[in-house]
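Work Package 3 (structural annotation) set out to generate three-dimensional models for the target panel prioritized at the project kickoff. During this period the team completed the workflow that converts sequence records into discrete structure tokens, so that structures can be stored uniformly alongside our sequence database. As a representative example, we reproduce one entry of 163 residues exactly as it appears in the project archive.
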Amino acid sequence: MNTLIRKIEPADDTAIAKVIRQVLIEHNVPKVGTAYADASLDCMYKTYNQKSSVYFVVEQEGTIIGGAGIAPLENGAVDTCELQKMYFLEEARGFGIGAKMMERCLESARNFGFANCYLETMPYMLAAQKLYKKYGFEYLDAPMGNTGHSSCPVWMLKKLAND
């Protein structure tokens, strides 16, 4: 599969919001208390064009098929970032794109100086959790920070200093 992972551009906002919503609907994720309801979903370029933040999109033949980002954890420790909005359309899965995206995001987190990377997900997103565990994320007993994603009951953390 010939794909390009690149930083988000202003013209990508509509396409990536559509991808994220489509994946969330596909997985029957609640619309309240998840990324689906995030106000930032329709202005991703502006949201991630901030200090210590980055969002990458995956493009295939000019079409956005997924994305993921890093940003400081909302109301969390200053040394902790969050892996955010990592979603891929069905046609993008199974080709190692998630692993490449994870490497780009974790490299960015380290370059920003973060010591920890946090994420939240759904219990039935097992393929995603398998990828997270492969990259050293471990399950937590309680959420960190205040992401507003009250419907996401699986929390994981990776210590970046161990790499």
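The mean pLDDT is 92.
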